[in-house]
Description:
disordered N terminus, alpha/beta, TIM Barrel
Amino acid sequence: MYLNPCGAGIVGKDSPCGQDALQECFYSLLACIYSIINDPMDTKQLIKEKTVEKQVTEMADAHCHLDLLEDIAQIAESIRYGVRTIVTNGVNTKSNMRAMELADNKNIFAMLGIDPEHAGVGDDELEFTIKTIRQNATRISGIGEIGLDYGRVKEKVGVERQKEVFGAFLELAKELRLPVSVHSRDAIVDVIHTLEEKGMEMVHIHFFEGSVQQAKEIEKRGWLISVPPINSSKRGKIIKEIAIDNIMAESDAPVVGVTPRDVEKSIEIVAEAKRIEFKRAADLLTQNTKKFFRLHTKGMFMRY
C-alpha cells in the first residue's frame, strides 16, 4: 500500500480504486516533482528570509569568557552576526585584566570577579581584585563570575573558603550597587540563602541548574536567570513557568558554546518554550540584558 504524497488517503492494488488509483497517484507524484523543480522559489525564499532574519536580529550574550577564545577574530564575527551585546566575565586576575582590555563598552562589557575554582587564591590577590573593581566601578558591568561550586571544585577549594570569597564580593557589590553574575553547581540552596542573607537585589544566576520552585523563588525576588545553549525538558519547563522578564540568554563560550554566536541557540530554546517568534524572543532577552547590566551608563576603562 502507498501513501499518496500529493493528496490524502492510502492506495494500493487491493484498495477500492485498484490500479486506477495507483495510476492517479503516480501522475500526482510526477506533478509534485515538476512543481518543486520548476517553482521552488517560495520554499527557498522562506528559508532565506528566516536565515537573514536571525543574522540581522540583534542578540545579547549575558555570560561568556572572551579571554578563553582560541581566535580573537571570533569576537568580531559574532558581533557582525548580530550578537551586538556581549558580557564577558573574569574568573581570576589574568582574565579580569583581559576582560578590561577587550571591553569597549559599546559591544563588549566586562564583569570582574573570582569564581569558585580560583577562590583558593591568597588574600593579596583577593584584595587586588577588590581594589580593581572599586577603581573601575562606573566602567564595569558588575561583579562576576562569583559563586559556589560543591561539585568538582569542592575537592580543589574548600567550601568555607568559597563562601568567604563569595561573601566578600557580595558585600562589595552591595556597597557599590553593582549587579552580580553568580555561578552555582550543586549549591543552589546555599547560593539563594547567601544572596538573601546579604540582601542582594541585582542578581543574575547564570546557567541556572535549580528546580522550577527555586526558579519561581528567584523570579519572586526580582532576580534573573540565564539560559545556556543546551536544551532539556527540565530547562524548557522552567522557562515556561517564569516570566520572560526574568530570563536572559548566554553562550558561556567557549566553556559551553564555541563562540558568542551560540547564544542564538539559547534564544531559540526560550522562543520554543514560550511559543513566540525568534525575533520577539531575541528582542526581549536583549532588552533584559541591557537593563539588568545598565549598559547605557558605562564609561571608559582605567588602563594598567
